[in-house]
């Protein structure tokens, strides 16, 4: 008798909900530090959460927007400083 659990719809939705929340948190944190890393991660997590049908669509869209904003802020600071990173 094999005791491996088969994934259910509830587990998949819960995972997608967690990804939506994580994308929001990482996108928000990315505005302050490490936006070159956290921005793309937030974008990917939000996209996967939306594709999997998360119940927290608002948080996923916020994570997606914040991830894009992270990259826009990085490009803006790079343009004004003429460097590959930004200093406060």
Topology, please?
Elements: H1 9-30, H2 35-51, H3 57-81
As a whole number of angstroms, the C-alpha radius of gyration is 16 Å
Q: Which consecutive residue ranges, at least 5 long each, have pLDDT under 50? A: none
> What is the SS-derived class?
mainly alpha
- What is the global morphology? elongated
Number of helices: 3
Mean pLDDT: 84
Secondary structure tally: strands: 0
Question: Strand share of the residues?
Answer: under 5%
H/E series = HHH
Helix fraction bin:
over 70%
Can you give a write-up of this model?
The structure is a single chain. This protein has helices at residues 9-30, 35-51, 57-81. The chain has 88 residues and is mostly helical. Helix 1 packs antiparallel against helix 2 and helix 1 runs parallel beside helix 3. The chain is elongated and about 60 Å long. The mean pLDDT is 84.
Which features would summarize this protein structure in a list?
88 residues, 3 helices, mainly alpha, elongated
Summarize this, please?
The chain has about 90 residues and is mainly α. It has helices spanning about 10-30, 35-50, 55-80.
């Amino acid at each position: 008798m094999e005791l491996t659990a088969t994934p259910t719809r509830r587990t998949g939705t819960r995972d997608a909900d967690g990804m939506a929340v994580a994308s929001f948190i990482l996108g928000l944190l990315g505005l302050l530090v490490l936006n070159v890393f956290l921005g793309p991660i937030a974008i990917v997590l939000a996209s996967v959460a939306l594709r999997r049908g998360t119940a927290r669509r608002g948080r996923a869209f916020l994570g997606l927007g914040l991830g894009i904003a992270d990259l826009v802020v990085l490009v803006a600071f790079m343009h004004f400083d003429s460097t590959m990173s930004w200093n406060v």
